[in-house]
Known about the structure:
Radius of gyration: 20 Å
Strand order of the largest sheet: 5-6-7-3-9-10-15
Number of strands: 15
Family: Belongs to the ABC transporter superfamily.
Keywords: ATP-binding, Cell membrane, Ion transport, Membrane, Nucleotide-binding, Translocase, Transport, Zinc, Zinc transport
Number of domains: 3
Mean pLDDT: 73
Structural class: alpha/beta
CATH class of the largest domain: Alpha Beta
Number of helices: 7
Shape: globular
Protein name: Zinc transport system ATP-binding protein
CATH architecture of the largest domain: 3-Layer(aba) Sandwich
Distance between the termini: 26 Å
CATH superfamily of the largest domain: P-loop containing nucleotide triphosphate hydrolases
CATH topology of the largest domain: Rossmann fold
Domain ABC transporter: 9-224
Pfam family, one: ABC_tran
Low-confidence stretches: 210-221, 228-235, 260-300
Largest sheet: 7 strands, mixed
Helix content: 10-25%
Strand content: 25-35%
Bound molecules: adenosine-5'-triphosphate
Amino acid sequence: xxxxTDPLVQLTSAGIERSGRWxxxxxxxxxxxxxxxxxxxxxxxxxxxTAKMALGVLKPSEGSAVRREGLRVGYxxxxxxxxxxxxxxxxxxxxxxxxxxxADAVRAMEATGIMHHQHAEVxxxxxxxxxxxxxxxxxxxxxxxMVLDEPVQGVDFSGEISLYDLIxxxxxxxxxxxLLISHDLHVVMAATDKVICLNGHVCCQGTPTAVAxxxxxxxxxxxxxxxxxxxxEHDHDHTHLADGRVRHADGSITEHCHPxxxxxxxxxGHDHSGHDHSGHDRSHSHGHASGNTGGGxxxx
Length: 300
Ligand SMILES: Nc1ncnc2c1ncn2[C@@H]1O[C@H](COP(=O)(O)OP(=O)(O)OP(=O)(O)O)[C@@H](O)[C@H]1O
């Protein structure tokens, strides 16, 4: 068990294996109070699986996942299954899966700006309103750690920015740690302290210090977007095939990739031409911050 001065959650060389295939492996990750850690990576790269290890929903097949004693977690899953044919108001939704004090539910709905929808049917909410309701439900538990799996899905760009702003504000207000998942390698992250890029394992991680300053970016997304968001620039040196094997930049294919297996190379001065993008089963993309790169990037 972790002590109060330790991280809220810590994964060490953690991996999940199913039917002889590693869904994700060799993950080292920690989230501290007041810290926002963002997981990025292509579809199927193991982000949700990693989050579930952090939550304790999945037990690592190897390595460890340790949470602070008595940790309260607020979870916004990627998918939820609710029978939408049943009437369910937003207020009732707040305490659907656990007891929540009415005052805490009100505070959470106020913080997320959905108080005026408290009597509305959840099934009638717009995409952005629903995501806010999901966030409110997580906050109402007064969590030490919030795990948000693609919290901006289905939300339009300006709604996305305000949701990221909201997450940042909640972090500031309640001082919780946040493990945030984004499915898009191009995604821009607001107030993220640490970015972890997964692709079956930790490809690289670091602090996104870059803010997109280019005129084109500002023109496209507006100055507010530039002020709030940073782009994390990174690259990959290998591809994960659909059957779980790994194709390396030199064309060789191995059963799996692990930080210890010696296939990783230093990203500093990396030659992009060595990157084989042909026939990728999981398409890799590169974030390009104009002139800015994430600071303090390290490679697994
Ligand atoms: N219970 C399971 N049994 C077998 N394979 C699984 C299981 N759960 C997930 N997977 C597989 O593990 C891989 C990682 O899945 P995961 O949901 O963690 O990816 P992700 O990065 O969150 O993807 P996305 O961006 O599409 O949400 C995928 O290939 C998925 O099909």
